[in-house]
Amino acid sequence: xxxxxxxxxGGSIAGMxxxxxLRAIGxxxxxxxxxxxxxxxxxxxxxxxxxxxxxxxxIGIDMSAPLGVAIPxxxxxxxxxxxxxxxxxxxxxxxWSRLYRPLKxxxxxxxxxxxxxxxxxEQDARGVTAIFADGTRATGDLLVxxxxxxxxxxxxxxxxxxxxxxxxxxxxxxxxEADATPAQRELLYARNAFxxxxxxxxxxxxxxxxxxxxxxxxxxxxxxxYRPADEAALAAMNTDASGRQHEQIxxxxxxxxxxxxxxxxxxxxxxxxxxxxxxxTPRPTFQAIYDLAAPQLVFGRAVIMGDAxxxxxxxxGAGVTKAxxxxxxxxxxxxxxxxxxxxxxxxxxxxxxxxxxxxxxxxEFGAICIHGETARPxxxxxxxxxxWAEYLTMPDRIHEWGKQALAxx
Length: 409
Ligand SMILES: Cc1cc2nc3c(=O)[nH]c(=O)nc-3n(C[C@H](O)[C@H](O)[C@H](O)COP(=O)(O)OP(=O)(O)OC[C@H]3O[C@@H](n4cnc5c(N)ncnc54)[C@H](O)[C@@H]3O)c2cc1C
Fold this sequence. Notes:
2 domains; FAD/NAD(P)-binding domain; six-stranded mixed β-sheet; 11 helices; nine-stranded mixed β-sheet; alpha/beta; D-Amino Acid Oxidase, Chain A, domain 2; binds flavin-adenine dinucleotide
């Protein structure tokens, strides 16, 4: 058989892992990305897990520089800023660019095709063909849909499998350490911080700067603040100043009054040291939180992976690790099975089970503390304590989930 070729749709994190890991087993790969921009500029903080590091090493990414900011403790602050708990719990927090940039740079030139938007997929006995919005085509032995939560590949094969709004959204903000006060630095740059106002959840932690720098003084502070909103309230927030409503409003179009209201709510509900940092961020952004569980991952010679297949609420901090594990499972299955069909069947069954597990963990966690009801004080406290206990143990459970997945491959 001549060298098999994979067409990878989506050049974000799942697409990058798939490209490297398929190349490593001898496949030719081409990555087709809808966006014309450099995706390394999408900044956000990310939790990391051992399985992710293991896969980066396997690809040959230089891991001698720190992957992120090592944070020794977790702190729970109440709404007035009092310390409810402050416990040792080491965690490594990384940043989007720190992961994406080396993966992209390690891909040989000519394999990444920006501004190519998949329109549809065709299959016949000779293989699978990607047809792009500009009318061009590419044919290969396998098509990998790594095209995110609104996947065109999934949309074609599973038109009914749509993301379901979880009933809440997250404000996200990055604040430069250089602008932090000495008191903020001392409390917050050595801790994962947690605040649980009624029905909401705030999580924040230091991350590498956008260029990957982890030197104290140059890092960023990453905020994720989950707040409930019904569909009508979310639609109003997603409406820009010209009155146009977006499914997910682009960050520069978020209205000033929406940002000002969020900053005011932070001052009223969140520990002052945290609310101050949020208030000092010029343009926080928000994202609705969705659940997505595809009932099937394989469609002949087309597969889906990463957020195209499963989106777990971010509480588990595992989307990137899951994307890496999906790609590793696919590559290992293709290496170890006699036929592509048998390999894809193995991939579909294995990663569906893993996806279902992580989705339900994330749903359970979200349901504990993020909700639109007003709870009685005793119940509030109980929910907050449960959320804190879950939050402390979650990384270990996700590490274990990742380790088991790697061991099984
Ligand atoms: C608030 C929040 C916090 C998070 N925190 C964490 C965390 O701490 N740790 C963690 O691991 N994960 C976290 N995640 C999740 C993580 O960001 C995602 O799981 C990850 O980005 C998924 O990667 P992906 O490549 O599958 O999809 P995406 O990153 O969405 O990429 C899909 C790509 O496909 C392209 N595309 C789409 N349609 C087409 C088309 N038709 N043709 C060609 N290209 C197309 C898009 O332009 C995009 O570049 C968080 C997510 C959110 C919302």
